[in-house]
């Protein structure tokens, strides 16, 4: 899994270039000003760096850069989640036009520069005097220590998500509880007020009828007395008249049989009229004009009407409204079980902290081992007496990765106090420290491609040879691409690319091509002797290549 191909068009002083890259350790060399860092700059553009119209070749409308990678498995979930096609090859493309407008694609699908950067962080690390990347990002530093220790944050992350979810549920319940309590208090006040009335089903109709009767009691009494008088008057009453008519008909029924039927009908009417008179007498005996009862009914009717107006409900529906309020109250009481939510949150918090403490213990144990390994690697890189420290401290806040803050501290020389790695003053020291870290952690599967942009600046002699051998060692397991001006480093490479600049009437162009063995001898001899190549420098170049190849064979054996 590595960078397979890079294609440039009208980038800087490159008119057109398609370059295939290989696994192992590859160096780029060339004369000063030839543009050795052009490939690095182009890769950074393809991986989301800031677009600049100065990157466009003079006289051209736009520049176009493509970088093709084998698709590492750990990038596939990210690609799927971001909505990009997942294929065996991963193609990143970026264009910049003369107006400064930038466009980007991932596997042919439009993308943002931020997405290119996110994906680029998973594909390669670029180390250089002024391009300090992963070791200044807290998550990368922490991830490097975790990878070295062979630990995973997956379980802790899961526990963190569970705890956060339970915290959110509890918080929402607490917030809702306040609202629900207010609602409960409102309902309770309404229920208490309504229960003073205690409206029964169908009570309103009966109450309204009773109130109407009492309100018209005197008129009803007068009416009943008048009706009874008409029925029972001695000479002119209805009952007397009906009785006389019945007697007359009965006295003549032997002459006219039809009168018998009529007399029977009158007998029935007389009986009904007598019943009415009896009922009126009973009504008058029990009827009572009681102002006190009327006042009580007036008060109750007023209470019914007042509550009906307040709650905008017909009086006859107050009983049903009270029942619905009591149902709501029961639902509110059962709406949130705070004790259960609090217990669940406490359990998940305990599970998270247990997992986080396990991580902290593992990190704390691994930090001295990583510190010693990188410190040892620094000794052969011109930093004798230098010291590297991986420090694990308690973070300000817990997080999905645990409760630790991991920092890398470095002292470049004996007697110096280790400081945060990003604050080390010397660019050359930063580069060599990154190389020491890369070699130490080369087997733990960080970014599959490492690029070193003149990390050997400021070193020479035995240190330069050590840098070359370390990169050679690193290239056994990883793809390493290095821009260098040191022949000792170039001789150790598995592949050698040369950057060459040509001038013509149409301008200056730069090309990159792969060197064969004889060409490598000539290039290393040039790097040893400058403009003039002598038999001595050629012999020295052959010896350096032979020694480097022999060392590589021994390491692979």
Strand content: 15-25%
Major sheet size, sense and barrel closure: 6 strands, antiparallel
Contiguous uncertain segments of 5+ residues: 553-557
CATH superfamily of the domain at 1-137 and 449-463 and 476-519: P-loop containing nucleotide triphosphate hydrolases
Mean pLDDT: 83
How far apart the termini lie comes to 23 Å
Q: Give me the secondary-structure category.
A: alpha/beta
Mind telling me the C-alpha Rg?
A: 50 Å
Kindly describe this structure.
The structure is a single chain. The protein has 557 residues and is of the alpha/beta class. Among the domains are: 1-137 and 449-463 and 476-519, Rossmann fold, CATH 3.40.50.300; 198-333. Helix content is 55%, strand content 19%. The protein has 17 helices and 15 strands. Mean pLDDT is 83; it is low at 553-557.
How would you summarize this macromolecular structure in one to three sentences?
The protein has 557 residues and is α/β, with parallel strands linked by helices.
Topology (elements, then pairings):
Layout: E1 3-11, E2 14-20, E3 25-30, H1 38-46, E4 62-70, H2 76-82, E5 89-97, E6 102-106, E7 109-111, H3 113-123, E8 124-128, H4 138-149, H5 154-197, H6 203-215, H7 217-232, H8 238-252, H9 258-286, H10 291-310, H11 318-333, H12 338-379, E9 387-399, E10 402-411, E11 419-420, H13 427-440, E12 449-453, H14 461-477, E13 479-483, H15 487-491, E14 495-504, E15 507-514, H16 517-529, H17 535-556
Parallel strand pairs: 3-13, 3-14, 8-12, 12-13
Antiparallel strand pairs: 1-2, 1-4, 4-5, 5-6, 6-7, 9-10, 10-11, 14-15
